[in-house]
Design brief:
Length: 397
């Protein structure tokens, strides 16, 4: 399929921003350890960076929705995020109490949804309606690329030049993406102006007023909580079946590669499947993959489980984006995507937090609970599908 230059710039920028975000996590963990000698310092920085995304989602989305030049605003938000990451290194390097660095991370984290939902919300203004589905799949693939490249780059740079430089390179990727965002020929359509407070409230409640958005968001959030539980179990699976806990990271790489391949296959289909049906299929596949990991008796079955999980993860994200593009009102589009990104981060973090104590007790039990979470997501899909049928489109306020 022919790709206009603007679409290519969009995808490169999205991959750059998301790679920088994926780098920042392990880089901050290593930086906290190097600066304080305690791994808990790094985990505190990472937790702070993600915690405020719940607040940032609605605010970043509202700002983009109300901007006459959203791509320029997006570029500035990305620059501020990159500068904030660099500022974190100087705060730690200055020998200030860890609380100052945590406070800095909390402020920077507010801008986090711009790297994911902020980018994707601009796509309908960039490509024609007949190209949107396929470009959306490619957009989702940038998350898989970032998941592969980000941690590997962070580890390589930290090993060669130190964790400080790894954080700077992470910030550089985000700032590079900002330059591409600034160059995008995207203009926001003229919408009827409403007060900021009313628009913020409308963005927060749009999921309740659109059956399709509510179903897709609820189901994928529950599914991501289950994924967070699986990720916590990965080191123990690596130790049990691959000999060393750190080899569990290879399972995450297998998942990322399979996610990319599945989305590549999906993008080449002449007729795309129904996004809503695809979400259900992917959730059921993830339940099966998680159950396979729990019942695995050798490394072959664990790798097979990773293949199934990854192959379902990528198309699920593509389908979620498609639902949002179809049913988000134009004047709330950015809020729908950034609030969705916040919920995704929060659900994953909640699943990981819940999994910790269970995984220490029994990794099989933890995986069984994760499988139950995926089945609960599938059940939620069925229950919410019983609601009064409708297009899911939301009228203006």
């Amino acid at each position: 399929m022919y790709m206009p230059r603007s679409s290519v710039r969009y995808l490169i920028g999205a991959a750059g921003a998301r790679t920088g975000e994926e780098m920042s996590g392990p880089a901050l963990l290593l930086l906290g350890l190097a600066a304080t000698g305690s791994i808990s310092a790094g985990s505190s920085l990472l937790a702070a960076l993600t915690a405020t995304s719940v607040l940032g989602g609605p605010l970043v989305g509202l700002a983009l929705d109300r901007s006459g030049r959203p791509t320029r605003l997006l570029a500035w938000l990305l620059v501020l995020y990159g500068v904030g990451l660099v500022a974190l290194t100087f705060v730690l390097g200055a020998g200030l109490p860890l609380g100052w660095a945590v406070a800095t991370a909390l402020v920077v984290g507010v801008l986090g949804p711009a790297l994911s939902g902020g980018w994707t919300s601009q796509l309908p203004f960039l490509v024609s309606a007949d190209r949107l589905e396929r470009v959306t799949v490619r957009d989702a693939m940038t998350f898989g690329v970032a998941a592969l490249l980000g941690p590997a780059l962070a580890a390589a740079v930290a090993a060669g030049a130190g964790p400080w430089v790894a954080v700077w390179v992470s910030a550089g990727c985000v700032v590079f993406a900002a330059g591409l965002a600034r160059s995008l020929p995207v203009s926001s359509p003229v919408e009827e102006r409403v007060r900021a407070g009313a628009q913020l409230l409308a963005g927060a409640t749009v999921f309740l007023r659109s059956p399709s958005l509510l179903r897709a968001t609820a189901v994928t959030s529950l599914s991501l909580a289950g994924t967070g539980m699986v990720v916590v179990c990965v080191p123990m699976l690596g130790e049990r079946f691959l000999g060393v806990a750190t080899h569990g990271a290879w399972l995450l790489s297998v998942m990322a590669v399979c996610s990319l391949v599945a989305n590549l296959v999906l993008s080449r289909r002449i007729r795309a499947p129904s996004p809503d049906a695809l979400i259900l299929v992917c959730v059921l596949a993830q339940a099966g993959g998680t159950a396979l990991a729990a019942a695995a008796s050798s490394w072959v079955w664990v790798v097979a489980a990773a293949v199934v999980l990854g192959a379902a993860e990528g198309p699920q994200l593509s389908a979620l984006f498609s639902v949002r593009h179809r049913h988000a009102p134009g004047y709330l589009r950015a809020q729908v995507f950034t609030i969705g990104a916040s919920l995704k981060i929060s659900a994953f973090a909640l699943g990981a937090a819940v999994a910790g104590p269970w995984a220490e007790h029994s990794v099989v039990l933890c995986l069984a609970l994760a499988c139950g979470g995926q089945l609960l997501a599938a059940l939620t899909h069925g229950v919410l599908s019983l609601r009064r049928p409708g297009s899911g489109a939301v009228a203006g306020v």
